[in-house]
């Protein structure tokens, strides 16, 4: 499994992980167990997903040493003013003594508490209870303010990113600031994207499924990527992306699919607490 260096001393993140948004609480343990058995070593959950207990049971019951599995969770919007307490609650639900990455889930600019949350997260990081800290759904504006007011650069920004929403401005900003780009809904939620005719052509050429072509594109761009599926065959399919390389012409062909199409909320206006 390929890993990338975070800007936090010595911490590496497996480039491909398993995301569990919308995995029901009573299915999470089984789904994560299947993913770990298939070779995933990075699990992406959140307090808001309501399935941290199942994720934790699977990680603890896997027989894998704790340091071999990278676990991410996220601080929910209504908890920006009580980040440490909310983090302790997440750890208790996971049944773990630390997470590898703790993210602010959304900036919620209208609420204006993300700088306060970030300061609390720095303390959690310094205490060693999160090996790295970062953000999700931040824009150039909200990231700039966070860095200017605290002097601490997030290790990663997890944003919606797929061939129909390529986020070139954000990726360039991240690269200029030493922040990794992590792609959520990397498969475009399995909706129209996977039946795009351009992907069918590449699928035929490489003998790989459209989902595998898209995941390979992410890896070659340097994105961390966290596809979700609860179907064991697809969980295995989605990790089968380390045995081929898209040539530059085909990377460009996928690059040409961008249409700036968001599937999820706009970070500037998402206010659900
Ligand atoms: P995704 O792009 O990973 O798509 C998942 C869907 O695609 C599945 O439900 C299934 O219908 C389909 N699919 C999966 N594998 C397939 C395959 N091999 N062939 C055909 N169809 C396939 O979408 P997602 O779940 O929205 O995003 C992935 C992860 O990103 C989430 O589970 C979560 O961890 C994270 N996420 C984070 C945020 C955030 O705000 N930070 C928001 C959304 C998602």
From TrEMBL:
Sites annotated Lowers pKa of active site Tyr: 74
Keyword Chloroplast carried by entry: no
Family matches, as PROSITE patterns: ALDOKETO_REDUCTASE_1, ALDOKETO_REDUCTASE_2, ALDOKETO_REDUCTASE_3
A Gene Ontology molecular function term of the record: oxidoreductase activity, acting on the CH-OH group of donors, NAD or NADP as acceptor
Keyword flag Ubl conjugation: no
Active-site annotation: 49
Annotated keywords: NADP, Oxidoreductase
Chain ranges passing through the membrane: none
Residue ranges annotated for the NADP-dependent oxidoreductase domain, each copy included: 16-258
Annotated positions binding substrate: 105
Family in the record: Belongs to the aldo/keto reductase family.
Protein name: Oxidoreductase
Record lineage: Bacteria, Bacillati, Actinomycetota, Actinomycetes, Streptosporangiales
